[in-house]
């Protein structure tokens, strides 16, 4: 089942073309990684897909009414804002706002999934950065949407929690939901995403399985780097090596 | 949270009765309440219904809406330093009132002052809405409000500066300090419609403010129309602050301090904070208005002076405490 369909999406911000004719999709069961240089338009792509900024072309999510969209997709912006000293439990429960219910089940499940039960009564503003990131992911999980879109959800996490978070996304996908995320760690992207979309020069350079996408040519064009590539028992290993000039 | 609401409601009720029973005419409590409820021709009924009742009602209305608007502004701007006066509405309302005193309009007919203040408030809101436009970024709203406040303050000073009549200048200064003394039911009826409209606008913003805890992008993606939310808060705050300033002058610190004080009772959530702040604001202004009558019965101590005098050091204490918590 397709959860997100973008057709010829183009975005112009302040007279600058940021995205040109992007056509991609996300289906149930997928963890789709969106990678590319800083400023290539990854965040813009997600925000335009969500209808948060004006765009030309078609986005299946932007076409929905705000209420229907809030039940179709949960969005985790890159800025991990927690404005008030609410408890972790109350923070996660904010995910129920679009449903306008106080259902405890999804909140408890989300707390459990992100191993936040011991922290449930702590003030979210007093948590470490990594704990806050986990609480915000739990908030998005509690929204119980078919699709989860996250902008750099693992930036700033320690290696264990980076892997743990990617595993949570894999779990969600295995349960029939879909995940689209941006990330900069090519190694983790190769290892944990079922599909990668590489953005370069305002458009899609490559879209496919990690091992098909992360070729020497694509890495050179998209990132100006070379990478060491090997196959381990746990899956593909990518280690960026040096810049190509 | 329901416990906090119930306690605050009880507190407001007790203070309201207290407010009714205090005044220069030393009336027996039971008699005065009976006169208020049952009526009659005596002077007791007149004192209760025409002097003390409007004073109590205005304290509840103005204090309550200042607390509510303060909580809404802080929630919307996600900043604990925000307060209802930030929009420049109270400054422009004060300017309108000052002009009414200066030109002698207020001496000619008594409602000229509040009506002129309301006109000032409306002008402030119109400028603010034109300035922020349909997109209306938060920063534009704050900076616009600060600019409007500054202009209103400068013009108020200019009026005082050029005032040929020292008595008018004196009256202006005293009016600006804020007071609930000598207000009639006419003032209550004048402020009431604006207060009700403001209350209706602010009543529906709780869920949106809760969502804004996660930032504007996350709230918008959760289906909340932030433009509508902002419009409701700006117009609602303008209604209640404009009406409050028009009938009572400038009363500071309630909208800033009350939400701070009560944030802990609702676990920091901005939505539930609205209603406890409304009750808290009513309780605070009732207490202050009782205090000015008890502390200096003959001296007409101004309400705004007392709220600032008590509010500011208290605020300092909160800053001190939160500084230690962060350390």
UniProtKB/TrEMBL annotation, chain A:
Keyword Transport tagged: yes
Task: Tell me the GO molecular function terms.
Answer: ATP binding; ATP hydrolysis activity
Kindly give the Gene3D superfamilies that the UniProt entry links to this protein.
P-loop containing nucleotide triphosphate hydrolases (3.40.50.300)
Presence of the UniProt keyword NAD in the record: no
The alphabetical list of record keywords is: ATP-binding, Nucleotide-binding, Translocase, Transport
Domain annotation ABC transporter: ranges: 4-226
Purpose: Part of the ABC transporter complex HmuTUV involved in hemin import. Responsible for energy coupling to the transport system.
Protein name in UniProt: ATP-binding cassette domain-containing protein
Q: What is the lineage of its organism?
A: Bacteria, Pseudomonadati, Pseudomonadota, Alphaproteobacteria, Rhodobacterales
UniProtKB/TrEMBL annotation, chain B:
InterPro entries attached here?
A: ABC_BtuC-like (IPR037294), ABC_transptr_permease_BtuC (IPR000522)
Q: What's the chief localization of this chain?
A: membrane
Q: Which GO terms describe its molecular function?
A: transmembrane transporter activity
Q: Which domain of life is it from?
A: Bacteria
Q: Which GO terms describe its cellular component?
A: plasma membrane
A biological process (GO) of this protein is: siderophore-iron import into cell
Annotated compartments: Cell membrane
Question: What membrane topology does this protein have?
Answer: Multi-pass membrane protein
Transmembrane feature ranges? 54-73, 85-105, 111-131, 138-160, 186-205, 233-262, 274-296, 303-320
Q: Which UniProt keywords apply?
A: Cell membrane, Membrane, Transmembrane, Transmembrane helix, Transport
> Does the UniProt entry include the keyword Disulfide bond?
no
Q: Which Pfam families match?
A: FecCD
In the record, the note on similarity to other proteins reads: Belongs to the binding-protein-dependent transport system permease family. FecCD subfamily.
Stated name of the protein: Iron chelate uptake ABC transporter family permease subunit
